[in-house]
Design a protein that fits this description.
Layout: H1 2-10, E1 17-18, H2 23-35, H3 37-58, E2 63-72, E3 78-81, H4 83-98, E4 109-112, E5 117-130, H5 132-199, H6 205-239, E6 251-252, H7 262-272, H8 274-295, E7 300-311, E8 321-330, H9 338-404, H10 410-445
Parallel strand pairs: 1-6
Antiparallel strand pairs: 2-5, 3-4, 5-7, 7-8
Helix pairs in contact: 1-5, 2-5, 3-5, 5-6, 5-8, 5-10, 7-9, 8-9, 9-10
Length: 453
């Protein structure tokens, strides 16, 4: 009966359900995409870039400002107006001609360049008509926003992979704990049988001591497995931003061989990987930065309208108001060859980005190859571990029956149990390793996008 129960457990039919897909894991991934704190930080970075893009767009609209100035002046330049020197000779001639004194002599006038008091209150409207820097700045902000969005998508893919791997790490630890508990029951039963055989003078006392020693070893294995279980439980819940001790529901999937060819996997990776999309955006960004530096050599054209009031005293009447409309051109004719050097630096940076793109493309292809063959090896390991477990199970059942009948030595029984435990543990690890390698392979292809959850 014990052998049957052990076999049932070893083929993973107890403790959780068996499904072709894993809707439970998909639900956990969906939850993680909604609640992961690191992902929320990247989404906030993206929101900030969108805000910066709207700010850059707003620079194309007219700017309106209110400017008020009140001035009190004393001293300064004096302006002399020789009105006496100009008019007195004329007045003298007129007096002679008319024989009168109707045209008196006048003094030259002197007045200050600055008026003692003066105010100016105006509303200014400035509308950019053509400004290369504004255009390229807007496009640069667009690239920054797109890069931030791709960064969110990239982290989502990484998070999906991390949650998937953490889930199967927990499943592995859970199964190893179950295996350790089962082994403990077996060894404890072996100790009971050894004690009974010793009491019946069929084995010596060393058989009992050996069974007790094996029981202690299994207790250590139990402690190690439980430690792994708690650590994997806490990390999985950390990724989902849940209580670190929250329970996890498990569902087993049967490993299947890879169905996609290596060539198709590499092509999919080149089309889907976010790293390449980011570099493409950086290349576009570099082009706009180059145009920005070149645009500094082009003139900027602005329309300016001022409406306000001027006078020595605050008065807002029709006699005090004024209206000015201007067309303003700004052209930086020489900046010490600085723009030329900046353009040259941007071109060099563009060439560097081209090399980075090629290198990243090769790295992705290499990554796909490595994970493709690692997945195949993991699947073959599962098949081999399953066969080894079945063989070890049959061998243990035979030796256990012989030992109970006193026809087999304790050493043979311990060796059979150790082989069975090792084979079962290898099967558990191989199964979990397969799904971990599958998560790596999907990530390498860019096939684990958040749109699937």
């Amino acid at each position: 009966m014990k052998s049957v129960l052990i076999l049932v457990w070893l083929i993973c039919q107890s403790g959780f359900s068996v499904t072709a897909q894993n809707p439970i894991l998909e639900q956990y991934i969906s939850e993680g995409l909604q609640s992961n704190q690191a992902l929320k930080q990247r989404q906030l970075d993206y929101a900030a870039q969108l805000s910066a893009l709207k700010e850059a767009k707003g620079l194309f609209f007219p700017g309106v400002s209110l400017n008020a100035r009140y001035t009190v002046a004393e001293g300064g330049r004096q302006i002399e107006f020789p009105v006496g020197d100009l008019l007195n000779p004329v007045y003298s001639t007129l007096n002679l001609l008319t024989a009168t004194n109707l045209f008196p002599q006048i003094e030259n006038q002197t007045f200050s360049f600055y008026r003692p008091t003066e105010h100016e209150t105006k509303v200014s409207l400035v509308q950019p008509i053509f400004n290369s820097e504004l255009i390229q700045n807007y496009r640069i902000k667009q690239n920054h926003a797109e890069i931030a969005k791709i960064g969110v998508d990239r982290y989502q893919r990484e998070l999906i992979k991390e949650i998937t791997q953490a889930y199967y790490d927990y499943q592995k630890a859970y199964n190893l704990v179950e295996l350790a508990d089962t082994s403990f029951s077996l060894v404890r039963e072996n100790l009971r049988v050894s004690q009974r055989l010793f009491d019946n003078d069929k084995v010596t006392k060393d058989a009992v001591y050996r069974s007790e020693s094996e029981l202690s070893k299994v207790e250590v294995q139990q402690a190690q497995a439980n430690n792994m279980l708690q650590a994997s439980l806490a990390y999985f819940n950390f990724l989902l931003n849940r209580r670190l001790d929250a329970s996890i529901e498990l569902a087993r999937q049967d490993p299947v061989p890879p169905t996609i060819s290596l060539e198709d996997a590499s092509l999919m990776a080149i089309q889907n990987r976010d790293e390449l999309r980011q570099i493409e955006q950086y290349q576009q960004l570099n082009q706009h930065v180059t145009k920005l530096h070149r645009g500094s050599n082009y003139p900027g054209l602005f329309g300016v309208v001022d409406y306000g009031f001027q006078g020595e005293k605050y008065s807002f009447t029709q006699d005090d108001d004024f209206l000015l409309a201007s067309l303003v051109m700004k052209w930086n004719l020489f900046q010490g060859n600085a723009n030329h050097q900046k353009v040259k630096q941007s071109k060099i940076e563009g060439e560097k980005l081209g090399e980075i793109y090629s290198e990243t493309e090769q790295q992705i292809k290499l990554e796909v190859i490595n994970h493709y063959y690692a997945l195949q090896a993991a699947y073959e390991s599962v098949q081999s571990a399953g066969k080894q477990t079945q063989s070890s199970m049959r061998a243990y059942e035979l030796i256990d029956r012989k030992y109970s009948e006193g026809q087999s030595s304790l050493l043979e029984l311990i060796d059979a149990r150790t082989s069975l435990t090792s084979a079962a543990a290898n099967l558990i690890i191989s199964q979990s390793e397969y799904f971990i390698r599958l998560a790596d392979f999907k990530y390498a292809m860019g096939a684990n996008g958040p749109e699937n959850y």
